[in-house]
Amino acid sequence: MTTSAAAAELRCSVNTLKKLIAAGLLPEVRERGNRTLLPAGDVRALARREGVDPDALELGELPVLRVGPAELAEGSRQSALIGYAARLTPEQMYQALRGWWRCDPERILRAGVLAVTLGPYAVAVLDDFRYVESRGGRYRFTGELAGYVTDLVTPVQVVRREAPLARRILGRRLESESGGPVAYVQRRSAGG
């Protein structure tokens, strides 16, 4: 299946699909000339993927960090990465996801968890926040990488310790809207 046909089936843009490919989340991607092809079965499996049910998480709201494929951080003198890539070690992934982000730090600390999405899919979860640093209106959180996915099709979850919330989020669709890198998904039920 071509990227344009796959993106249509997944209800996302071709650009978003290319980000999932660049992050290494779709293991059976093939190049044929200047075309990128994906197995139809993989695309259908992703298209049928259940979404995260915010009401089932027992949180008032779920903060969501929306990232792109890992790349060198702007202005970085070292090889600091920002974003997500399945090939990163857990420590590299944690460092690439922990900040500096424009957000409301109190909302994230109150929730105690930060879901990470690349496109419409939850690819990592940060939690167990101990403190937050501030720099020029951006924030960085010190906590734990509760889990992440290395293959979105299956999906292959790596959960680093007892983290039931991470297991309910990882590899699922998690749609969020925001003008910045952090969005907040609200419970749908009344009184949530």
Question: What are the key terms here?
Answer:
7-stranded mixed beta sheet; 6 helices; 192 residues; two-stranded antiparallel ribbon; 11 strands; globular; single chain; 24% helix; alpha+beta
Q: Tally the helices: what do you get?
A: 6
Distance between the termini: 41 Å
Global Rg: 16 Å
Helix content: 10-25%
What fraction of residues sit in β-strands? 25-35%
Overall pLDDT level: 90
**Can you write the helix and strand succession as a string?**
HHEEHEEEHEHEEEEHE
What shape does the CA trace take? globular
- Give unreliable regions as ranges: none
Summarize the structure.
This protein is of the alpha+beta class.
Please describe what this structure looks like.
The protein has 192 residues and is of the alpha+beta class. The chain has helices spanning 3-10, 14-22, 40-47, 90-97, 105-111, 164-169, and strands at residues 30-32, 35-37, 61-67, 71-72, 81-82, 99-101, 113-118, 121-135, 138-151, 156-159, 182-186. The chain is built from 6 helices and 11 strands. The strands form 3 sheets. Strands 3, 6, 7, 8, 9, 10 and 11 form a 7-stranded mixed beta sheet that branches. It has a two-stranded antiparallel ribbon with strand order 1-2. Helix 1 crosses helix 2 (14-22). The protein starts with a helix and ends in a 6-residue tail after the last strand.
Topology overview:
Elements: H1 3-10, H2 14-22, E1 30-32, E2 35-37, H3 40-47, E3 61-67, E4 71-72, E5 81-82, H4 90-97, E6 99-101, H5 105-111, E7 113-118, E8 121-135, E9 138-151, E10 156-159, H6 164-169, E11 182-186
Parallel strand pairs: 3-7
Antiparallel strand pairs: 1-2, 3-11, 4-5, 6-9, 7-8, 8-9, 9-10
Helix pairs in contact: 1-2
